[in-house]
Amino acid sequence: MTTPFLRLDGLRKYFASSGVLAVADVSLDVGAGEVVALVGENGTGKTTLMNLLFGAFPLDAGRIEIDGEEVAIRGPQDAIDHGIGMVQQHFALVPSFTVAQNVLLGREPRRRDGRIDDAAAEREVGALADRLGFPVDPAKLVAALPIGLQQRVEILKALAGDTRLLILDEPTAVLTPSEAEDLLRAVRRLASLGTSVVFISHKLPEVMAVADRIVVMRRGHVVGGMTAAEATAPAIARMMVGRDVLLSADIPPGSPGADVLRVSGVSAPQVSAGDSGLDDVSLTIASGEILGVAGVSGNGQGALVDAIAGLRRVREGTVEIAGTDTTGRGPRAARDAGLAHIAEDRMHVGLNRGATLEENAVSVAYRSPRFHRAGLLRRGAIHRFAVQLIDDYIVRGASARRLIGSLSGGNLQKIVIGRELDGDPAVIIANQPTRGLDVGSIEFVHRALLAARSRGAGVLLLSAELEEILTLSDRIVVMYDGRLAGPFARGELDTAEIGALMAGSDLETSTP
Questions:
Q1: Are both 44 and 154 inside the same structural domain?
Q2: FRET label pair with 235: which of 81, 171, 287, 510, CA 20 to 30 Å apart?
Q3: Are 10 and 63 contacting, i.e. CB atoms less than 8 angstroms apart?
Q4: Do 71 and 173 fall within a single domain?
Q5: Does residue 161 sit in the same domain as residue 298?
Q6: Ranges for the ABC transporter domain (predicted)?
């Protein structure tokens, strides 16, 4: 029997601070040139397991073998020395450095006088990119690159040494569909060149497309696996969560009432290279309705959200929330009028990871009489609310008075949604609400948004997942270069027609 390149035998990790057994005696083999997909709900130990392999956490028990020999990995440098590279969900690039400087950081080629040879570095990185089929300009500043190209830089950085195993943690979470397809092709190319890949993802179609074998984790344990040839999405989802999961459904339309959001002729300036401004945008959302916004990232979605939420100056036009003109009055006025905001970046905008769960749970409502009286916070009421949120939204591994930094992405998103949907807001901005989440958490988020719609909220849904837009939305608009096409009724356009609008064809100025 052929010895696998990597063997994990009985790995265990217990976090005493949270009382969580994150990895429970897990064993796993990865062959040379094999792509193994590691799937499971958020918080089930997938990333922790790979962090053990990469040396980010010390092992409590178990052994790691490479080519049949036990190795000691006490830190990331040990892992790199043994040919293991890892690309985390959240990039660790230096924006002011070039692509080549980031890829070869700490191992730069030198001239005879000891100075860094930038030209040699660019040649080396360019050759590596060409060999792997990752076209990127080595001389370009990382700050000027879109997210998809920044991820290529991270992968090149992980592969710049003698890397034999590449770990990719939710690699397509921030990519457009075309960028994701490019990445999957690159992964298969790496495998054909003999590099092993562990691919962590919640997106079941891409898992089945890229993997040779699929391994499923649940609550710290490996509970099963299958080859890609025998896998089906329902079977994987059932193994992940221990029950049948509603992956898609014929969701009945909402029952729209009066308008709760009216954006009229809004233009707003561009404030960063990664996003356009707004050009005469108009839309309405009724109570009991979900309006989906489709579009490639960077075409004005951020400006639209910021303009509605009072986070960006509006040059022309007006924003009304539940009948109140909030134009230019800031985020507090928008929230006071009835706006809830599920932010795109839950890690840095939606939450404070250096604060406790109960502090985050009331961060947008601490001035409410429920939580504030006579100039003092009502600590008991805040604690009870946080405990109720944990119970209602099944936030695993959480405690009201502990810092939230160690929670998984899915559990962090549950905190955001529980906080934002409290009090039945009139308008909900749901910006990429399921990005990076597993199938169980996605189902949970969808049910929460549909329940809010049923209670009479108007929902503005922005998502890079076109299938999500098509499944949940009562009407759809398409955003390109700061303008809107539509609205279109559910079923009026197919995927190909929406894709063409996303690329800018036949675009007409939006009408409410």
A1: yes
A2: 171
A3: yes
A4: yes
A5: no
A6: 6-244, 261-506
Phi-psi region of 450 (alpha: psi -120 to 50; beta: other; left: phi over 0): alpha
pLDDT confidence of residue 245: 61
Identity of the residue numbered 333: A
Is residue 222 within 8 A of residue 216, CB to CB? The reply is yes
User: Do 364 and 292 belong to one domain?
Assistant: no
Q: Of 409, 424, 439, which one is at a domain's C-terminal end?
A: 424
Residue 251 belongs to a domain: no
38: CATH: 3.40.50.300
At 441, phi and psi to the nearest 5? -70, -35
Give the Å distances, CA to CA, from 363 to 335, 408, 420.
12, 20, 10
In a domain, 1, yes or no: no
- Same domain for 198 and 298? no
Least Cα distance to 61 among 14, 5, 6, 4 occurs for 14
Q: Give residue 201's domain range.
A: 6-241
Q: Residues 375-420: pLDDT tens digits?
A: 888 888 889 888 888 888 777 777 788 887 777 777 888 888 888 8
Please list, in sequence order, all residues whose beta carbon lies within 8 angstroms of the beta carbon of residue 29, skipping any fewer than 6 positions away.
4, 6, 7, 8
pLDDT at 509: 46
From the list 180, 190, 123, 203, the residue with the least C-alpha distance to 159 is: 190
The DSSP result for 81-120, as a single string, is HTTEEEE-SS----TTSBHHHHHTTTS--B-TTS-B-HHH
Residue 324 lies in a domain: yes
Specify whether 231 is located in the same domain as 291. no
Q: pLDDT per residue over 269-294, tens digit each?
A: 887 766 678 899 999 999 999 999 99
What gap in Å lies between CA 232 and CA 242, rounded to an integer? 15
Residue 430 and residue 342 in contact, taking contact as beta carbons nearer than 8 Å: yes
> What pLDDT does 398 receive?
77
Q: How many domains does the chain have?
A: 3
d(CA 377, CA 71): 53
**Which is nearest to 290 in space by CA: 430, 416, 392?**
430
| 263, 374: one domain | no
The segments of the chain whose pLDDT lies below 70 read 1, 18, 174, 176-177, 244-250, 273-275, 436, 506-512
